[in-house]
Amino acid sequence: MAPTNWGTYLVTQASISEGQSTLEIVRGAIDGGVDAVQLREKGESARSRYELGLELRELTAEAGVDLLVNDRVDIAQAIDADGVHVGQSDLPVPVARELLGPEAVVGCSTSTVAEARRAEADGADYLGVGSVYGTTSKDVPEAEDGIGLERIAEIAETVSIPVVGIGGITADNAGPVAEAGAVGVAVISEITAADDPAAATADLVETVETAKDLEHRE
Ligand SMILES: Cc1ncc(COP(=O)(O)OP(=O)(O)O)c(N)n1
Ligand SMILES: Cc1nc(C(=O)O)sc1CCOP(=O)(O)O
Ligand SMILES: [Mg+2]
Q1: 137 in a known ligand binding site
Q2: Which residues bind 2-[(2R,5Z)-2-carboxy-4-methylthiazol-5(2H)-ylidene]ethyl phosphate (predicted)?
């Protein structure tokens, strides 16, 4: 599936779960209809991300769900992921593309119009734009303040590649992100910290689909 159709995108970080493993959470997310999963697990060793990545690859491939790896092109290659997600302090987009090839999905984090233009020119396939509402899930002070929906709209109008909103997104506030022009939403806590990840995912899927339907009718 292409990023254009990623309505709901799970970014994994089991350290903020209520005792559930990443595999359990991803299984639930798949049952709930998630479109893409990103292996993040900041703080874990390369070996443990690699081993978890192999298991996630099996699960996601069976379900037809895209699998991305955060930051690490080498792990993406080693587990045969669909692609990689890089931020402003990670490997540059053209380098990730060169290493992974033309078929891989390369996503890039941006929070300003200038960064978005650059990522698109560099060949990114989609943008992760945030932090939309502000979050403590990403351990940097900048993420605590939201960039707001107007910035999402401005970036979505500027670039031709899909924009995915990230940061502080829940089923209650995901609709306006899609209405602002994002193809979908990426979340950690809304699914990961839920008692029932499948139900939390299904709520998000429905909210985003409804908002996109309304947006297209206008
Ligand atoms: C979909 C998506 N968008 C943004 C990010 C953040 O990437 P980055 O800024 O590199 O921060 P880390 O996640 O690496 O801490 C993301 N991971 N996914
Ligand atoms: C990994 C990440 N990147 C962000 C960015 O703004 O680039 S915000 C974020 C954390 C998203 O977690 P939650 O859904 O719990 O807010
Ligand atoms: Mg990164």
Answers
A1: yes
A2: 135-137, 168, 188-189
